[in-house]
Amino acid sequence: MSETSGRTVLDAADICVSFGGVRAVDHVSVSVAEGQVVGVIGPNGSGKTTLLNALSGVVPASGRLAVEGHRVRLGGPERSRRAGLVRMFQQPQPYRFLTCQENVLIATPDRRARGLGSAWLLRPRMLHIERARWAASLAALDRVGLAAKAQVPAAILTYGEQRLLDVARGISAEPRVLMLDEPSAGLNDTETAQLLVLLRSVAADGVALLVIDHKIDFIDALCDRITVLETGQVVAEGPPAHVWQDRRVMDAYLGTAHDA
Ligand SMILES: Nc1ncnc2c1ncn2[C@@H]1O[C@H](COP(=O)(O)OP(=O)(O)OP(=O)(O)O)[C@@H](O)[C@H]1O
To answer: Can you give the residue ranges of the ABC transporter domain (predicted)?
Structure first.
């Protein structure tokens, strides 16, 4: 793990989300550089998922969002997606009756020329593009260790494999920012360690990662920086070693043993 000094890819400032009288996210700012992994931790109900929802455009939010220096208007999932934000959910969400490869293929950007002219006149080119998409989908499955299961239905994968399939789909969507909500949930220690290596390799490709998780060892080993939320507000931020020294974080995560 190293703290990168790449250019900023995700820059979110002053993000606020309210549900009726509840301010779920309260003036939260977070930025992630190219190749960097930023963790978001905090107690249940502290606003972590809602922050990701705001950045993905699926809940009404105020504040400013920029991806690679380009402003993205909040509140539109398509706008966030077009800007390069890709979101993975708490529960793996494969299409259960499609094969693993088909699951990845439908997450792959489709750059085919459209229209009747394209369909016929550009046929050789389209075939070439389709072959490349199929090869890329297999490469993504290989990268997460699922190449041997490319042709089996997603329904028969274990829970851990479904998570890996989700990561393969995320990578194939060519994200600039990959946002993961509790990716290690339900994984055993070996699977969690494999996921850590995989996510670091995705970051090494230059993708900016924003990761919510409750497993502190996983977050500590994975992240370059950590943002800690409590009741919707940032209460600590910085490299892991700095954040773990924060008294509020110690109280919340390490109990009161440090007082002894
Ligand atoms: N759609 C919604 N409608 C009303 N309130 C909501 C909604 N979504 C979240 N909340 C509230 O917003 C606050 C933050 O919830 P959120 O799910 O973002 O927390 P979290 O930190 O992700 O929690 P957890 O770790 O349990 O997933 C909570 O008080 C929650 O009840």
So the answer is: 10-256
